[in-house]
């Protein structure tokens, strides 16, 4: 009785090829995941613009885009400062109140008979910087939780805004001041040019300076950063100071654009700033994120607001849509961490 033929034993080469086949087939999927992780926000922005352009013809006109960029500039400037804070694993809930207070201080120097643009800029920026430094000192030096500190500053700065001018707006601002928010240079609004300069400066700082590397290091692992010789408290102090300074800059632009400084200005602006940062891919756990992502995140929010306005969608639904986008962005961040 003949025995059935047996298959020859697998050679080492065949076994190696068998084990490598799944890995080879998995490479394209891995590349696609990396591609979406790196450029997904830009793809989403392009798709959003195409969809809104098809739905509403006037969306893609130059005049509408000038309006979108002008409206987005304030949130984008706030989000740049917020990015620096969140990269260190912090949060700044006070930016909307600092915006209002700084704008009111600046406007007080360019209203009435005594007009001084230099004092307006120095006073407004100085007010935001000082309050931001106070946030930084409490977080860095006294080790108070950023959420608690900036939530308290949100209330303090808003109260100072009402105290400063007895709860009254400041109107009748000088033309030289209004130019900051309403002027055009080379066909582009001045706020957009200010945003471009601010973005370029802090993009360079985060990418090419030691301070930028320290920010990422502190957010990645504060204990390890301290062990390696980085003055972590100094870094944390200054990111809150930067956030306060940029809040003041945004407040000056808003007051100049609306031709008056209102005590109620900037309410809930901190939520849009945080949304822009999170949508742009910066991790709330710190240490991961880019300013280019934040800028696109701010543009996505601006485009959604503008596009839905053109389509006649109620502002109530806009809030729901933005909330859903934020939750999805956070879930994607969690998914990236679990996979990586």
3D architecture notes:
- This protein is mostly helical.
- The protein has helices at residues 12-55, 62-87, 95-108, 117-140, 146-164, 175-182, 190-208, 210-220, 222-227, 232-258, 269-279, 291-310, 315-339, and strands at residues 184-185, 188-189.
- Strands 1-2 form a two-stranded antiparallel sheet.
- Strand 1 and strand 2 form a beta hairpin.
- The chain contains 13 helices and two strands, in the order H-H-H-H-H-H-E-E-H-H-H-H-H-H-H.
- The longest helix is centred in the N-terminal third of the chain and has 44 residues, at 12-55.
- The protein is globular.
Mean pLDDT: 89
Strand order of the largest sheet: 1-2
Shape: globular
What's the total helix number?
13
Which band does the percent of strand residues land in? under 5%
- Given helix and strand content, the structural type is mainly alpha
Helical percentage = over 70%
SSE run: HHHHHHEEHHHHHHH
If you compute it from the alpha carbons, what radius of gyration comes out, rounded to the nearest whole angstrom? 25 Å
The strand count comes to 2
Main sheet: strands, sense, barrel: 2 strands, antiparallel
Which regions contain 5 or more consecutive residues with pLDDT less than 50? none
